[in-house]
Fold this protein.
Amino acid sequence: RWLRRQYNIFPLIAEVVRADERMVVTYSSSLAHVYWTEPDRPLSFDEIRGDPERRALYYFLVAHSGIGLVVTRMLDGAHVESLTGRALITPTGEVEVLSGDDPLADYAPTAVERRALARLVQYENSGDLVLVGAYDPERDRCICFDDQVGAHGAIGGRQFWPFILSPRGLVPASFPIDDPLDLHLLFRRYREQPELDVLDFVGREQRVAAQS
């Protein structure tokens, strides 16, 4: 309370939904999702661009100085646009710059980050527009869509990179973690066969998956 009084910080609301008949917006930290309620299915970039009203909102958001990236679905991957350029991301994290500068240069310089962004936008419950708050790499600061003094959950700088505090040896040094889903097998092993070596368990599960 003292901190909020001193710095005039408003009460934090972790996640807010605002809706009317045609649109729903959800946001938390530096990530926001915008949904059209009709039709009752996810929209692609081409569908948004093909409708005059949707296209107008899309380019209004692209031009907004507080928004760093507007991300939309493609048939296979994601379309990303900023004030200075636009690009396609493949599911494997490769980038094809379509015009202008690479919009991902300051936000997702690694394939790990780009794959995460492409996967996020393909989820059925992700927004028709996924908005990433603007990020300033020189000051290492980003724009949040709610009142916060820190941020995580989107991309741009350190906010993308998590860490795990664990007992020594819980995660072997040779165990690859390129995605949060990589931890699933690790945790399954401790639930199902804790006596089995981690890498042996993971190798067995991967062989079973390849054969199925």
About this structure: The first strand starts at residue 16 and ends at 19. The two ends are 56 Å apart (CA to CA). Residues 162-211 form one domain. DSSP finds six helices and ten strands in the chain.
